[in-house]
Design goal:
It holds the Pfam family CoA_transf_3. InterPro entries: CoA-transferase_III_domain, CoA-Trfase_fam_III, CoA-Trfase_III_dom3_sf, CoA-Trfase_III_dom_1_sf. It comes from Bauldia litoralis. This protein has helices spanning about 25-35, 65-70, 85-95, 110-115, 120-125, 150-155, 175-200, 210-215, 220-225, 265-270, 280-285, 290-300, 305-315, 325-330, 330-335, 380-385, 390-395; strands spanning about 15-20, 40-45, 75-80, 100-105, 130-135, 205-210, 250, 255-260, 320, 340-345, 350-355, 400. With about 400 residues, it is of the alpha/beta class. The chain has two domains: about 15-215 and about 350-400, Rossmann fold (3-Layer(aba) Sandwich); about 235-250 and about 255-320, formyl-coa transferase, domain 3, CATH 3.30.1540.
């Protein structure tokens, strides 16, 4: 009988002390955990990560668990500690001696005042990689402001680019600034790990939401700052303030479709609307884009979504159905990619989640652990770092560590 070879993980052997909360930091460490890193989530004793107390729809998975927390905290073990305790500080610095990465996204200055700044960790482990996430960076006029996702979208210019020009601007329907910040954390951490392999040196990484959002609006900034023209939201369903028709969202008999790139002639021929030929030059399609959108939308409404998509795809018009979340989860391509999966949670039961988004031929990311309970793994984590059972019991008795079961 042959046994399957052990599954390999790209970041196996990398230990991360994860002090982060809410979305930016936890998503970053979840991505590292999917690749096999040993993520030790260090939460506040008692209450844990702030996301545990926040939810959508005023409902809880399994009656008690936050979908927000469950989404960003798989493949981690939790230990819940009182970070203000001298005993806990000494314990964490002992753990840091053999750790590889520290991740935190407290407001600037908070962690340093508690004795957990980069220099504190570097003093016990010069090879440590310390990744700090914030809203606006660690200095400057906004350093003390709350760095929340929607606020960043507005400051960077994304919200003003979104929605119809005759209505209020609209924030994106997802935490894009936080999620981009998470990707930048991972980008920085992986680069630092590679550089450490070559030099033996650790370093500090600073990631902030505003800088990340600006970087992802690069083409909009280059266009406005170099072409001498401001972006202006259209009054129709055109999909971008800098684009000409037909780029946008259109109604059908039973829903909506998005239409991106194609020769305009190809589109009006598919729609059997030759009268639209009068608009067929680039300047007109921009200058009269709202008018063109209205004309095209009147034609798309004559078709069901499936029929219209079939007609457009047959002549290579770039188009797609506009799904809601539930429909997207059942989309044939999403199902083919196995992008929705489940894990078993001790309180939430069978939880449906989004699977890792990348495919690797040798070290495929996987989901091996559900999101943890508060401090669930405290005893086993401390035992791995050599702490005696009696000393662990003392931490619990003193209130410096809590364990939820």
């Amino acid at each position: 009988m042959t046994s399957e070879p052990p599954v390999q993980r790209a970041l196996e052997g990398v230990t991360v002390l994860d002090f982060s909360h809410l979305l930016q930091g936890p998503f970053a460490t979840q991505l590292l955990g999917d690749m096999g890193a040993n993520i030790i989530k260090i939460e506040r004793a008692g209450s844990g990560d702030m996301f545990r107390s926040m939810t959508f729809f005023a409902k809880w998975v399994g009656g008690s668990e936050s979908p927000n927390f469950l989404a960003w905290n798989r493949n981690k073990r939790s230990i819940a500690l009182n970070l203000k305790s001298k005993k806990v500080h000494d314990l964490i610095m002992e753990m840091a001696k053999t750790a590889d990465v520290v991740v935190q996204n407290f407001r600037p200055g908070v962690f340093d005042r508690l004795g957990y700044g980069y220099e504190d960790f570097k003093a016990v482990n010069p090879r440590i990689i310390y990744c700090s996430g914030s809203g606006y960076g660690e200095e400057g006029p906004y350093v003390d402001r709350p760095g929340q996702d929607m606020l960043i979208q507005g400051l960077a210019g994304l919200i003003d680019n979104t929605g119809r020009g005759d209505q209020a601007p609209v924030p994106a329907g997802a935490g894009l600034a936080d999620q981009i910040g998470a990707m930048n954390m991972v980008y920085g951490i992986l680069g630092a790990l590679y550089w450490r392999e070559k030099t033996g040196k650790g370093q500090k990484i600073e990631v902030n939401l505003l800088a990340g959002m600006l970087a992802h609006l690069a083409q909009e900034y280059v266009a406005v700052l170099n072409l001498g023209q401001d972006l202006k939201r259209p009054n129709s369903g055109i999909g971008h303030p800098g684009m000409q028709a037909p780029f946008g969202i259109y109604e059908t008999k039973d829903g909506y479709v998005s239409i991106a790139m194609s020769p305009f002639k190809t589109l009006y021929e598919v729609l059997e609307a030759p009268e639209l030929a009068v608009y067929d030059d680039l300047a007109t399609l921009y200058d009269k884009r709202d008018e063109v959108w209205e004309k095209v939308n009147a034609e798309t409404r004559k078709y069901g979504s499936a029929e219209l998509l079939e007609r457009m795809l047959a002549v290579d018009i770039w188009c797609a159905q506009v799904n809601d979340i539930r429909t997207a989860a059942e989309d044939p391509q999403v199902r083919h990619m196995n992008m929705l999966t489940t894990y078993e949670h001790p309180r939430g039961g069978t939880v449906r989640v989004v699977a890792p988004a990348i495919r690797m031929s040798e070290t495929q990311p996987v989901i091996e652990r559900p999101a943890p309970l508060i401090g669930e793994h405290g005893r086993e984590i401390l035992a791995e770092f050599g702490m005696a059972p009696d000393d662990i019991d003392s931490l619990v008795a003193d209130g410096d560590m809590t364990i939820e079961t």
